[in-house]
Amino acid sequence: MKDCIEYGSVVMEYAVEYRARKTLGICVHPDGSVEVKAPMEAPLEQIRKHVHRRAPWIYKQQRYFSSFGIHTPERKYVSGESHLYLGRQYMLRVVDSERNEVHYKGNILEVECRHRKDVRPLLMAWYRKRAEIKFKEYADPLIARFNRYQVKPSAIKLKEMATRWGSCTATGQILLNPRLVCAPRICIEYVIMHELCHLVYRNHTKAFYELLTQEMPDWEKWKMKLEKLMI
After folding, report:
1. Which of 4, 63, 66, 224 has its Cα between 20 and 30 A from that of 11?
2. Residue 144 three-state SS
3. How does the average pLDDT of the chain come out, rounded?
């Protein structure tokens, strides 16, 4: 459902998606679009009031994203393209081969393949495998730090998510977007830390942010870097 409010001289449009949840949530996407996730029973007037209260923040986020200008064009997965891995830029090199393999050396990310149509799926599979390895490596010491709070994730799993880098389920599973493997280590650690804090405080309360700041004092810096880099 589409709706809008007036914020000063700006007409602020947003989409409403009803879900089985208890609270209202707002997401501003890199293209400037606004999505409101609402409980199934939430009246429209309540949603409008919530959006109006959050309008200054929404406007600020839209201005922030627009400052980066045109987004990266759609990938074609051909030689010469630039691709990220752990925050570094690599030049893609596609090589005709009897093998289907992906490897990197120096600043080259090389895909050997029998058919050019397989370049993207091969690269995505490689990213996912690297994510499984690196996320565990980065998460283990952070999980150990949270022993002091007597909490521990029941599992850490990868999950493709359109608008989120991570989430924490009611059963204590931490879900991480495999695309995060393109970001620098510190940004990945920020997302993991954020979700670990949700094992202590489920919602984004003052206490939650106090804990996050205690464990990672400069978390806002890495959140902004992640948002800027991964548009």
Report:
1. 224
2. helix
3. 90
Alpha carbon distance 137, 133 (integer Å): 6
Give the span between the Cα atoms of 223 and 3, in whole angstroms.
29
What is d(CA 229, CA 231) in angstroms, rounded to the nearest whole number?
Answer: 6
Instruction: Please count the other Cβ atoms lying within 10 Å of the Cβ belonging to residue 106.
Output: 7
3-class DSSP state for residue 72?
coil
Q: Are 193 and 213 in contact (CB under 8 A)?
A: no
For residue range 78-106, what is the model confidence (pLDDT) as tens digits? 999 989 999 998 999 999 999 999 999 88
Using only C-alpha atoms, what is the Rg of the chain? 20
CA distance 43 to 41: 6
Q: Is 36 in contact with 16 (CB distance < 8 Å)?
A: yes
Query: Residues in the chain, how many?
Result: 231
At 20-62, the pLDDT tens digits run: 888 999 998 877 889 999 999 999 999 999 999 999 999 888 7
> Over the range 169-203, which residues count as b (16 or more CB within 10 Å of their CB) and which as e?
eeeeebbbbbbbbbbbebbbbbbbbbbbbbbebee
Reading across the β-sheet that carries 108-113, which strands appear in turn? 82-85, 88-96, 108-113, 101-105
3-class DSSP state of 104:
strand
Cα–chain-centroid distance for residue 202? 18
Q: Using one digit for the tens of pLDDT, what is the confidence trace for 119-141? A: 999 999 999 999 999 999 999 99
48 within 8 A of 34, measured Cβ to Cβ? no
- pLDDT recorded at residue 86: 95
Q: Is 69 left (phi over 0), alpha (psi -120 to 50) or beta?
A: left
